Amino acid sequence: MKKDKIFLNDEEILDYEAKIANVKDKIVLEIGGGTGNLTKKLVSAKLLYVIEKDKNLARILKSFENEKIKIIEDDFLNVKPFPVDVIVGNIPYSISSKILFKLVEWGFDHAVLCVQKEFAERMIAKPGTGEYGRLSVMTQIYFKPIFLRVVPRGAFRPIPKVDSALIYLSKTNEKVNKKRDDLIRKLFSHKKKNILSAIKSREFS
After folding, report:
1. What is the per-residue pLDDT across 61-100, written as a single tens digit (0 to 9) for each?
2. Alpha carbon of 2 to those of 29, 36, 95, 178: distances in Å?
3. Which residues make up the CATH 3.40.50.150 domain(s) of the chain?
4. Other C-beta atoms within 10 Å of 73: how many?
5. Please, what CATH class does the domain formed by 7-174 belong to?
């Protein structure tokens, strides 16, 4: 089990996350089921897929499995997208960006994610603020993000060094544009004086 694997176990926050996700009679995907703390709050779903790559945790989650709950032992980043209505998950800090960018490929109505507070603030940041960057641009192209609430570090076990936050994402109608996305990456990886050359090095439509 990775050292950054932490588990949200505050019942009030878990209940809130499940309520906001509004999973009743919907097809739901949970990213990183862990020990099932959130999974058991999602049983009103029409069909619930739970992805967990840790073998030991997947074994625990198998106890929830039935005709409505399917456990997928795999890395979410390697799973081929399939249609779902709702995505939920308490996301590992170390791969939050990779997971967010992977979500662009998925078809869904909305998602409720628990991420590091600083990460959530960057997702909703506006131009001209210190937090604004590539993550802000990419998030706001493909999603409409809403900062829901802070999740204090004490809500997790083991207790992390930072606070987290719940964020709500609804998808925009924007289609994936790899050329544009690559340009955005280049722009934010270059120093300001090199931005013009970054633009000239890449054409997109």
Report:
1. 999 999 999 999 999 999 999 999 999 999 999 999 999 9
2. 22, 17, 12, 31
3. 7-174
4. 16
5. alpha beta
